[in-house]
Amino acid sequence: MAPGNPPPHGPASTGGPAGPQRRSVISGAQGGNAARTGPGTPPAAGRPQWAPTSPQAGAAASGSAAARSGGSGPARARTATGASTRTTAASGGTGGRGGRGSGGGRGGSGGGRSGGGRSGGAAGAGKGSRRRLIDYPRAGKTGIRRWLPSWRLVLGVILFFVLLLVGFVVWAYASTEVPQPDDFAEAQTTTVYYADDATEMGTFGVQNRVLVSGEQIPDHMREAIVAAEDRTFYENPGINPTGLVRAVWNNVRGGATQGGSSITQQYAERYYFGTTVDDYRGKAQEALLAVKLARQQDKDEILENYLNTIYFGRDSYGIEVAAQSYFGVGVADLTRAQAALIAGIVPSPNNWDPHVNPERAEQRWDYVMDGMVETGAITQAERDAETFPIDEVVEYSRSDTMAGPQGYLLSMVESELTTRSSISSDELRQRGYRITTSIDPAMQQAAVDSVAELPEDAPENLRTAMVTLDPQTGAIRALYGGPDYLEVSRNAVTQDEAQAGSTFKPFTLVAYLEAGNALTSRYDGNNRVRVEGFGEEGVRNFGDSSFGNVDVVRATADSINSVYAQMNVEVGPEATLEAAVRAGVPEDASGMDPVPANVLGTASPHPLDMAHAYNTFAAQGIRTEPYIVETVEYLDGGQVYEGAELPERVFEEGVMADTTYAMTQVVQRGSGTAAQALGRPVAGKTGTSNDNRSAWFVGYTPQLTTAVAMYQVSEDGRTAETITPFGGYSQITGGSVPINLWTSYMTRAMDGMEVLQFPPRADVGEPNVPPMVPVPNVVGMHVDEARAALEGAGFAVAGTEVADAAAPGTVISQSPTGEAQAGSAISISVSTGPSTAEVPDVTGLPEADAVARLEAAGFSVSVSRQESTSVAEGRVISASPSGGEAEPGSTVSIVVSSGPPEVVERPSPEPEPEPAPEEPEPDPEPEPVPPAEPNPNS
């Protein structure tokens, strides 16, 4: 505003009566002047009096002032600092505060002063307040609104950063150059060592690659890989924005790391970088390169190079070798179903190989086939006509480095690194690493030698699994997964499953002790004890044995099913499963169901799972995850991966001490006494599944945990069957061959180790011992009367029927007698009466036929013989009893003809010769005649 013009605002306030006044004008370059009026007459018409400014006013120093509006009351106008010219005029009174100007103007009117009072003119507003670039805190606002940014400010900040980000991306894209393809000829071999870091276990390296042209790759192979890996491949700009955002969001939330990589990104990784990137900076570089490649190269060319580059498992690089490895044909001859199978396993080819994990391979095949429908490559009808080509997959023979038992170890090394680290199968074979495993070479050899010494008559289809863990670290010290990886690539320790049997009972024991119970609690250990959830026949003990009233320690040592069934129902089957999972059995293991029978081992875990769980017991409640890779290093130094994870306490020490004590009694006086030959403290548990389809011994010392499992597979290799007895055993149980193998191996493995003791028994919990009460004698009673008497006395009743001479329904025996725990079960035997069977009529049959028919009918046979002229020799003359019925097992006497009596023909008597004439007896010598006496008369 020019000097001399009035300001565009209202008058200044006045105050006091009129009087002589003096006018003073203060002028500045910018700003307003304040005038005060003293007592006197107010300015005419309520407007200030204006006087021209002097020349000096124009030379005044510049200043600014904010005029504040005084409303209806007195007001004061602040003046700017600067030189001024003052003119005095008479006035009266002291004026009030001037009003605030808001328009743009310069200078102001002066005020006069008279007699101690000042008269004030109206204050002219300055040129206006200067506007700030960022109005924050907000001017003219009070309270919280002063600190809340305006929408203009927020929008401006967002636009600023968006433009900044766009500019950065444009710059990064422009500065990104497509590098030369990775030279596979310079790939280095990865060497794997045993735990001594000196003994070589094997190697990983590039094995096979045959490049093929795009014309040789059938359309359905291209369509299958697109459906499997990147369904928007032909439409996206080299990256899949949806997948990328989903992966970033998942990673930010802390979920499993996801790549969100498109086919072009994977191609950039493998073809140009030669490695997998999983950090955000690397992913950003990969994405920029993928976008540039998509603009510079044809999508079909990218897909062709991708299929010639990636790893398909079975040491196969590129689609041509993969087709040969899986189906024995070239890529040009692959069917649609075969192409879908190969495409589906690309993310994890060794773990999803159809001969290793057919279920997962089929799931991926379904995913690819459905994706081909979704992308329009095939119709739903064509998809429905295809079947999973598992029967067309050929057996695979790997290189010699995988031959023998160490092939299972090398396969585990690869599996662990590709699932737990950022190292891919491609990198493992191309980048060159030095890998040290946890496998002790001496223990590993002891495991191989011990299995080789199994009895020679062991069945050929018997599978044996053995694994040893270190309780302190979880390191796998030895593992026998099979005799030769090249013949059977399925690892018996990590991939096969076997029903756990009684090795599952310790999990119930742990849950039982955690619930506040004690080892001294007692239960009915008889056979066929009725327990809720086990049916009317009750729980059957092994061999139908009864043990009477026993404590938990005895029940553990003798593996008494009826006691552990009662314990499991008491704590709840869910508690048993929860304890097993905490110890190390996977929650999704086959058969992990919350049913009362799970205590008897209905679950079928991997042998490594059971070793893991028992290893937690050996560490007295501290769980460590099993691992086989100690460290991975670059060949030029620098550690890439370390396998050991932090331990976690999952069970209280007192519970573990009591659990271990009870399990030592299995070895001291139960089914595991063979392990006493180790000559040091051993805790463990035998296990045998139904029909002897699997047999276990899992045991531990303070230094090592070892699990041994045996099972027999059918000819198709997929189902278990009863183990054929061998080694002089009538049946294979956990207490036979498995524990002998365990002891033989551990004797070698622990040779020279210090003998350590387990912690002493802690006796946690309170014993649950029911009082002993008299048992009614019910022998001789009818079964209904006996049951009423026993149940009236507070007992449960378990009965069996037997044939006996007593009347049907009569109790012929009971167990126990005298006293028993209140509420326990009393077993009674009830007569069904004498049993009879029909006696076959064997009269006239040959002896052999008669004996066979009688024995087949359940009778014993007594044979006697008798001459007969009417029954041929060797045939039955009679039987006793003959026909009718007799008690099974009784003796039937048969009389067998020995033929007619023997007739002895006497020879005709010869005519007696006429007797020879008897010679006359000689005359007796005449007695001598005495001499005659002389005759005197002569």
From TrEMBL:
Q: Keywords of this protein's UniProt record, alphabetized? A: Carboxypeptidase, Cell shape, Cell wall biogenesis/degradation, Glycosyltransferase, Hydrolase, Membrane, Multifunctional enzyme, Peptidoglycan synthesis, Protease, Transferase, Transmembrane, Transmembrane helix
- GO terms, molecular function: penicillin binding; peptidoglycan glycosyltransferase activity; serine-type D-Ala-D-Ala carboxypeptidase activity
Task: Point to the regions of Pro residues compositional bias.
Answer: 1-10, 927-938
Source superkingdom:
Bacteria
- Where the record annotates domain PASTA, the positions are 768-832, 833-898
Regions of compositional bias (Gly residues) in chain numbering: 92-127
Instruction: List all Low complexity biased stretches.
Output: 32-48, 57-91
Spans of biased composition, class Acidic residues? 911-926
- What catalytic reaction does the record list? [GlcNAc-(1->4)-Mur2Ac(oyl-L-Ala-gamma-D-Glu-L-Lys-D-Ala-D-Ala)](n)-di-trans,octa-cis-undecaprenyl diphosphate + beta-D-GlcNAc-(1->4)-Mur2Ac(oyl-L-Ala-gamma-D-Glu-L-Lys-D-Ala-D-Ala)-di-trans,octa-cis-undecaprenyl diphosphate = [GlcNAc-(1->4)-Mur2Ac(oyl-L-Ala-gamma-D-Glu-L-Lys-D-Ala-D-Ala)](n+1)-di-trans,octa-cis-undecaprenyl diphosphate + di-trans,octa-cis-undecaprenyl diphosphate + H(+); Preferential cleavage: (Ac)2-L-Lys-D-Ala-|-D-Ala. Also transpeptidation of peptidyl-alanyl moieties that are N-acyl substituents of D-alanine
Span list, region Disordered: 1-130, 861-938
Q: Which GO terms describe its cellular component?
A: outer membrane-bounded periplasmic space
Positions with biased composition (Polar residues) = 861-871
CDD domains xref list: PASTA_pknB (cd06577)
GO biological process, alphabetically ordered? cell wall organization; peptidoglycan biosynthetic process; proteolysis; regulation of cell shape
**Regions crossing the membrane:** 153-174
Which SMART domains does the entry mention? Answer: PASTA (SM00740)
Q: Which family does it belong to?
A: In the C-terminal section; belongs to the transpeptidase family.
* PANTHER family documented for this protein: BINDING PROTEIN TRANSPEPTIDASE, PUTATIVE-RELATED, PENICILLIN-BINDING PROTEIN 1A
Know the name of this protein?
A: Transglycosylase domain-containing protein
The organism of origin for this protein: Actinotalea soli
